[in-house]
Amino acid sequence: MRLPALWGRDKDDPFGALHREVEKVFDDFTKTWPSVGALTGRFLMPNIDVHETDKGLEVTAEVPGVDEKDVEVTLVDNLLTIRGEKKSERKEGEEGRMVSERSYGAFQRSFTLPYEVDPNKVEARVEKGVLKISLPKSAESKKKTRKIAIKTAK
Length: 154
Fold this sequence. Notes:
Blueprint: H1 14-30, H2 36-40, E1 48-52, E2 56-62, E3 71-76, E4 79-86, E5 105-112, E6 123-127, E7 130-136, H3 139-144
Domain SHSP: 39-153
Organism: Microbaculum marinisediminis
Pfam families: HSP20
């Protein structure tokens, strides 16, 4: 975790110097780990965006280098789960690789939706390393939605 940019700007600040030194130690220590992405969440916990529209929810998840056949999206009640696997492309007997920082392995991300969606109309597709999921509101959820008027104070 990086501290705000204001910390440690002054060269004489002992806390800033300590912070930089500790961060350097951790950076050096984790450089040699083969799946550092699993620890930092860079890949094995795909980053997502959730956007609400009048019709429902739009979820996008980063899944670079993952084939469509290696991704699974499930919806159980209001629990959406995205899981898949990024498979290693390394071949037996391959030589000459000096550094490998790419992450491989299984990933999974689940979260509860804020309202019921129509499971029969959910659509998902992978395009250019981005998984896009469209989750339309159920007819029941649309009926329950009501805009509340806000009164001004006197």
